[in-house]
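Recall that a protein's primary structure is simply its ordered list of amino acids. Everything else, from secondary elements to tertiary packing, is in principle encoded there. The following example makes that idea concrete.
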Amino acid sequence: MKFAIIGKATRNTDFTQVRELLQFLTEQHIQYALYPEYATELALEPSFQDTDGIQLLQPQLTDSAQLADFDILYSLGGDGTMLGAAALACALDIPILGVNMGRLGFLTGTQQCDMVAVTQEIILNRFKLEERHLLQIDTDPIGILGHPHYALNEVTIHKSNSNEMIVVHVYINGEFLNSYWADGVIISTPTGSTAYNLACGGPIISPACASNVITPIAPHSLTVRPILIPHTDIISVELESRSGQALIAMDQRTHVVQDHVQLAIRKAPFPAKLVKVNPPSYFATLRSRLNWGLDNRN
């Protein structure tokens, strides 16, 4: 097998554990390559001053197309790093293993201390792939959001100036739904339902549900509420704003667009594939990450 590794150093990163993973891959004669930004970060750490054959700077993945030669992409960081990894890997049908070195860790289910053990299981083909659907965003004018134009968590349409509202006209399969006078609108997958959607009062959606949710951000009308729709529906959007522009975010990638741009948001033709080795259930993760049931009186 061949492993690609992308990462971001956080205050929770245990560089000794990262070194042990790379040392294990080296000793097992398993090919791997790091993205250059992460390799540069690691090279600055005292743990990597004596590399003992660990490859940091060569070979590097300098082009996303090179990723097609690899079997699994490791994401070492937080959920944000995982979202960036998904944008790189999904269109190439590369599974992703998320290792939690951040804070919350909804997507990054593997812990740092388990990286070598989990890798051993992967080598022995003792793992599962969990599929999560993605959103694909097409625009008129074409290409204004660049590539990749996919989102695992959500697509957010947001005002660009703090002192204005925007109007977001939304259609479902060509039928008018509503004109949202608000700070913006979130179109979220079940995967992203515990992210920005949850913070704005949207529902938590199990990943097994074949749906997306449209959630307004600070709407001017109190009767406007989130709405769930089938993930096969196509959501069309047209924007208006006093400033003449708005922000479009695909997960963590943000673009400024001009007024009256049109968007079509639909289920992508391929899923994100998440590598799972002896994972806890989704509901156990939900209880743990959101601290459900915890009470200072107990």
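The chain has a mean pLDDT of 91. Helices lie at 15-27, 36-43, 79-89, 115-123, 196-199, 282-290.
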